[in-house]
Amino acid sequence: MLLFKVFSAPDLAWRPPRSVSAAISPTPLLRDRSSAPPAPKHRSSSLFSAHPLLTMSSPSKEELPKVSNEFKNELEKFDSAKMKKTDTQEKNPLPSKEDLKQEKQQHELVTGVSTFNKAKLKRTNTIEKIVLPTKEVLTQEKVYERKQVVLQGLSGFDRSKLRKTVTVEKNIIPTKEVIDQEKGSKAYGTILQGIESFDPSKLKPTDTQEKNPLPTKEVIEQEKSGAA
Description:
It is found in: Cytoplasm, Cytoskeleton. It contains 8 helices and no strands. By secondary structure, it is mainly alpha-helical.
């Protein structure tokens, strides 16, 4: 009802021009404003005038932005003949083969998704399987749990509970028997080294002579007398 009242006011009604020539004839740009008829004053509705956001006011002359005199002088002295003439080149590059292929694939994908018939899908039943862990898996889990317990114990260990100990360094002098044993072990080690490093090529070849001498008469009589 409020909008209807505002637009049905007599001041806002459309009025035709006085004559066709007056409506068509162009108005000069630099016309004397003193000869122009005053603009009709429209009555504002109480609904719009009461609202603070709908209150409008034109800025005063002092509030308008001002242009510096230097800028005005530069604009007045500017010579347009010094400007270089340029030709505007309109470029409309045609899409490449790859661009057309990508657009075609994208179009086919979108078309396929939008026109897909769900009735062609086959119905399937989901089978839930509960797989029991094997013996190896259980063993691995137990080992992992033990490791975690050990790591937690190490990380949370309180060093203040440790007892302070003093390290005693002892320098025991070996006895005579120990020295003799060490000497014997050293001699034995020297013999082993000599055997290991012995060069058999230094040996001289020899011939073995087997002898079996017969006993003499005196030897036989001595044996007999010894046996009697």
